[in-house]
Structures are given as C-alpha cells and as structure tokens.
Specification:
Layout: H1 15-21, E1 37-42, E2 53-58, E3 81-83, E4 87-90, E5 94-95, E6 98-100, E7 114-121, E8 127-129, E9 134-136, E10 140-154, E11 157-172, E12 176-189, E13 201-212, E14 225-236, E15 245-250, E16 256-265, E17 274-284, E18 292-293, E19 297-302, E20 305-308
C-alpha cells in the first residue's frame, strides 16, 4: 500500500479492514487472514540519508489495533456482563452496581486494565445508576447501562475493546404477601397448647410467606420489618374477642418470614361455625422510610382449619 503524507502529518491504517476486504498492494498481494505480526518500512519518496524507518508491528487482526508487544501473556476474556443479570429492588433500596467477567485473567495478566465510566439509567425517575450503586426511586421499569473498555485478546496478542453492557431494573413496591408453604397445621387443646384453657380447643397453623410487589413478583430482600394487625369481623361463631391482635416479623435472606395463626374457643371442637378476620401487614424496608401497607388478607378460623385468602 502506498500513501503520501505531509511533513508532521499522521496516518492511521486499519489493518483489519485491509484484511477483511482483501485490499491488494501495488503488486496485487493481499494480507493473510491469520496475520498477527509483520515488519514495516516507511519510505521517503525523496530519500535522504537515514530517512528509511523499519520496525515490527504486532497486530490484532480482529480489531486492527496496533498493540504493545511487551505485554505479558494474556487470555481471551469472557464477554463483560453486569452482575446480577437483573435488579429487582424496593423503592429507596440500594444495591452495588458492578461489572463481572473482566478480571477473570488476573492470574495470567498482571497489568490487566479495564474501565467503565459511562454509567446511566434510561429512566432516572425510576432508578438512579452510578458506579457504586443502583438505587430505586419510584415504581416502574428501566434499563441501566455502563460503557467503557477492556483489555482483551488471546495468547500474547492483547488489545483494548470498547464495550457496553446493560441490565433491566424493576423498582418494586411492597404490595401484598403470599404463602410459600405451610409449616404446620393441626388441632390444639388445653393439653397441647398453653393458650387454650379449660375445655377450649381449636386449630393452629404456621405458614411461610413472602412479600410481593405491584406486579405480583416476590421481593427477595432481607431485613424487611413487618408488623401485623388482625381484627375480628362477622360472623364470629367461635366467640373470639374483638381486641385487635398484633404481631411482628423480619424477612430472612430469601425474603421469607413466618406467620402464625391459631384459635382457641370453648365452642370447639363441636362447632361447625366460623369466625372471619382481616389481617393487615405494614412493611418497612431496610432502607427505612414510611411503611408500605400491604393488601389485607382475609382469614377464616374454624375448629378444624384456618385459611388465608382461601388457602
């Protein structure tokens, strides 16, 4: 290839483009597709002593970049990805934002380098995205993105490559709760359950639950502080006192919490009647702020069963 440049002028040659399109030189020769390195001559059309320059190029034949041959051995990097694959966070929730897959070759490449500096959210009114964190702002869906470059390659050929990764973000609002499993369900009486006295009997049920968001998806978040209030409605065939019952729970690392229900009544076990109750739960996220009042749960207590929302 012959090009003419002016004194002090710089010229960039895209070797990958020359290889890909099979561009011939003055003699009709083309560069081989597997070219990694070559020698070069820079010639002055009006030669003077010492004007001929020679050297060695190490090329990345994928991107066509000239790279530094003194780099230590490197390896092919996996495609960078934002970890986790998606964010489902509560309003006010804060999670670390970071990129995975760019430091897998640390053991082989001592001076590995990468940089992701262009962090953004498609809708910052839903979620704010920075280098250090992803923060839920208001209910909804958006996409977070991060752009930058990584040092990539294989063998002893390394090059920088511009990359951009993105991740879906759903900002969840505690809206309801659902039963994940029943832990225990059985009859009780004064001999087996301290709360029952005299001839009272009834039913005991313990379930595992999880808070769900505005879309019905589980909120997998530990440290949610839950408080409940259970009020007696009608009918009240089992004669449960009308004083509201209170209870608290904290979600574990899977977002689960235990919820316990029981009834002791002098009408049991003979009665076939029922008492209807309403359970309301307030959820305070680990980040604090005002509580979220979840949709009420309809409870039905009988001498032989307890159901929550028909379950």
């Amino acid at each position: 290839m012959q090009q003419t440049i002016q004194p002090g002028e710089q010229m960039w040659v895209n070797f990958a483009d020359l290889i890909h399109h099979g561009v011939p030189d003055r003699k009709g020769n083309v560069l081989p597709a597997d070219l990694n390195s070559a020698t070069y001559d820079l010639q002055d059309l009006n030669p003077s002593p010492g004007s001929l320059m020679q050297g060695t190029l190490v090329l990345d034949n994928v991107w066509g970049n000239q790279v530094q041959p003194q780099l230590p051995e490197c390896c092919g990097f996996p495609s960078p990805a934002w970890d986790p694959d998606s964010y489902e966070i509560g309003v006010g929730g804060v999670f670390p934002g970071y990129i995975e897959g760019v430091d897998e070759c640390n053991d082989q490449l001592e001076n590995i380098s990468y940089d992701f500096s262009a962090w953004s959210s498609k809708n910052p009114a839903v979620a704010a995205v920075t280098t250090e964190q992803v923060q839920g702002v208001s209910p909804g869906f958006t996409t977070g993105s991060a752009g930058g470059w990584v040092l990539e390659g294989s063998g002893d050929i390394c090059a920088e490559r511009d990359v951009q990764v993105s991740v879906p973000i759903t900002v969840q609002v505690p809206t309801a709760s659902r039963i994940t499993q029943t832990l225990s369900s059985h009859s009780v009486n004064s001999a087996s359950f301290p709360t029952c006295t005299g001839t009272q009997a009834g039913w005991y049920r313990q379930v595992e639950k999880i808070v769900t968001d505005q879309n019905g998806a589980d909120i997998v978040l530990s440290g949610q502080n839950l408080s409940e209030t259970v009020t007696v409605g009608t009918p009240n065939d089992l004669g449960i006192t009308g004083t509201p019952q209170m209870g608290t729970a904290v979600t574990d690392e899977s977002g689960n919490f235990d919820d316990t229900f029981f009834v002791c009544s002098s009408s049991c076990p003979a009665s076939s009647g029922q008492t209807d109750l309403s359970q309301t739960i307030s959820d305070v996220l680990p980040s604090g702020g005002n509580p979220y009042n979840l949709s009420p749960n309809a409870l039905v207590y009988k001498c032989t069963s307890i159901t929550i929302n028909g379950q």
